[in-house]
Design brief:
heterodimer; A: alpha+beta; 2 domains; five-stranded mixed sheet; 3 helices; 32% helix; elongated; B: 171 residues; alpha+beta; 4 helices
């Protein structure tokens, strides 16, 4: 309340308050924009799932026998992703009607083997029949994405995966 | 009037530390938010683990495989397959600057070098000096080393030995 005791000082104090207010508004919007972009940006999901799936496909090259791994592309409700398996990498894109080649892609390579065939395939986080995931199958030296998803309620309960577990492989069967 | 102006400048100067403090606090909060919303994903340790397991367990690689049953015997190295060509056929990356490894097979005393083979030899030899010297930066790499007791099979006879695997991960 010093400004009440001084002539003309209320103008300075007012300008100071105005400046601080502007700073706070700018700060609020800057923080809000940063957090909002972190929440709405799908690049984190795409980076995570492309690497996770590439490492899974990489690991399945060591399989001595047939394996099927149930996998959930668990995302927030408004995030829809497509996973594409090609000969040397896993490509994640946002779901769209456009061809995969025309969408922005996030990919990660896996170690190929001359003795294993990669059968190109696609899977989506939101399928038409509401299946909560897909399977990554390794059988007879072929690796592909399939429809053998089986939810593992035990794994989900323990937070090891599945739809309620935050994504990732939900177990072998 | 001049006195009033001087008083005004003085008043503004009086507020200057407060303004600086306000900016410092807000910048601090901004940095903290940025730090805790980090979206980077580091998978280097997992990649090393996966490559190590691929070397140790992959069929049609350096490990002895029963041709009739197709079963791999992890830990038993077929010395005939302990070559760069075998490894590069079993594991290769479409992006050359991805991972590389050097496999040194020693005798049971860990001194006598029996054989050496590479995965992605060109990249390994290019990055090894930088990785070993601990150079930082985008052009350098990390190196992880593991040694495992193994058996190596030569002319149908099994010998005890140690396999030292050095894996290079470019930054």
């Amino acid at each position: 309340m010093r400004f009440l005791n001084k002539r003309g000082s209320w103008e300075d104090s007012f300008m100071y308050l105005l400046f601080t207010l502007c700073l706070v508004v700018f700060f609020y919007f800057a923080i809000f924009a940063k957090i909002n972009s972190a929440i709405n940006d799908t690049s984190y999901y795409k980076t995570f799932f492309s690497r996770d799936l590439a490492l899974l496909v990489d690991s399945l090259h060591t399989a001595n026998g047939n394996f099927s791994v149930s996998y959930s592309l668990y995302t927030r409700r408004n995030v829809r992703l497509d996973a594409n398996l090609v000969s040397d990498k896993v490509i994640l894109t946002d779901s769209s009607d456009r061809p995969v080649d025309e969408r922005p892609q996030t990919s990660y390579v896996f170690g190929r083997s001359a003795y294993t065939n990669i059968i190109p395939a696609s899977a989506s986080s939101h399928t038409a029949d509401y299946t909560p995931g897909f399977s990554v199958d390794a059988a007879d030296n072929n690796i592909t994405f399939g429809n053998n998803f089986k939810s593992d309620s035990t794994a989900s309960r323990e937070g090891l995966g599945g739809r309620s577990g935050g994504g990732g492989a939900s177990g072998l069967w | 009037m001049l006195n009033n102006k001087r008083g005004g400048v003085g008043e503004i100067l009086e507020h200057f530390p407060k303004i600086l403090l306000t900016i410092a606090v807000m910048a601090g909060i901004f940095l903290l938010v940025g730090y805790y919303t980090s979206l980077t994903i580091n998978i280097k340790p997992v990649e090393v683990e996966v490559l190590f397991n691929r070397i140790m367990y992959s069929p049609n690689s350096i490990m002895y495989m029963d041709n009739v049953t197709g079963r791999v015997h992890p830990g038993i190295i077929n010395l005939d397959n302990f070559t760069d060509e075998t490894l590069d056929r079993a594991i290769n990356y479409s992006y050359e600057r991805h991972l590389a490894a050097k496999l040194d097979l020693y005798g049971s005393d860990r001194r006598k070098l029996v054989s050496t083979t590479y995965l992605n030899k060109v990249l390994y030899e290019r990055l090894e000096p930088l990785a070993v010297s601990g150079q930082k930066g985008a052009g350098s790499a990390d190196i992880k080393t593991r040694a495992n007791p193994v058996i190596y099979r030569k002319d149908g006879v099994n010998y005890p030995g140690f396999l030292k695997i050095s894996i290079i991960i470019p930054n």
